[in-house]
Amino acid sequence: MRSDLNKTKLRAIQYYYIDGTFEFTFGGLCLLLGGYFFLEASVPEGALSAMLSMAFVLIIVGGSTILNRLVKGFKEQVTYPRTGYVDSQRRTGKDRILRIGFVLGLSAIIGGILAALITRSSQVLDWMPGLTAFVFGIIWGWIGFHNSLPRFQVIGLVIILIGAVLSISGVGYSPGLSLFYMLTGLVMLISGGFTLWSYLHHNPPSDEAADEP
Fold first, then answer.
1. Exposure string over 177-186, b if 16+ CB within 10 A, otherwise e
2. pLDDT band for position 94 (50/70/90)?
3. How far is it, in rounded angstroms, from Cα 41 to Cα 177?
4. Does residue 24 have a pLDDT over 80?
5. Cα–Cα distance measured from residue 36 to residue 170, given in angstroms and rounded to the nearest whole number
6. pTM for the complete prediction?
7. For the chain, what is the domain count?
8. Which of 11, 26, 60, 146 would be 101's cystine partner, CB 3.0–4.6 Å?
């Protein structure tokens, strides 16, 4: 009985990731952060640079809120009419997206702290893409393993490889993080796109939904 209940809960959780919108959300946030770090690398030190630092939180909160609304609208228009609504009894929506944004920021902070503690040298910041990628990769791998989603485990491995290559190449702190988030966002969009294509291919609109004006 307990085994059947656990399987039911697992299917409900997996359903949340079935259409690729989770990757789209995470990928969108990564692209926003990639743009942020690109500007940080391009703008000289001064008042504008300080404003960019303060805008970090606004990018996370504002971007996550907008992306959440877009994803929610997509699910209501595309996913739920095809395969229905399933309540996984887990926190979803804005709380989940904000937690994703928190992970993004926290990963960068953890990487910076580790870098400072390891060598106490600014040069180690060049390894920030690798450190951030390691945190990201572990998180995605854990989600994939815990919820039986192999594609997330593959994503985690690819993210770690991206960070390692950027760190070894020595592109620098801000440029490296910009490239890392941009490439990670691209990986997310590709994964989400293939997942969405597969979902739409195997779940055509129902007759009732197709007849609606």
1. bbbbbbbbbe
2. very low
3. 10
4. yes
5. 20
6. 0.79
7. 1
8. 60
Q: What mean pLDDT is predicted for residues 133-143?
A: 87
Residue 186 in any domain: the answer is: yes
**Model confidence at 75: pLDDT above 90:** no
Give residue 103's Cα distance to chain centre. Answer: 9
Flag whether 54 is in a domain.
Answer: yes
Percent of the chain scoring above 70 in pLDDT: 69
- Domain carrying residue 152: 2-201
CA 158 centroid distance within chain? 13
Half-sphere exposure of 111 toward its Cβ, with a 13 Å CA cutoff?
Answer: 25
User: Hey, what are 193's tokens?
Assistant: 């796109």
Helices and strands counted in the chain (H then E): 9, 0
Cα–Cα distance measured from residue 30 to residue 71, given in angstroms and rounded to the nearest whole number: 16
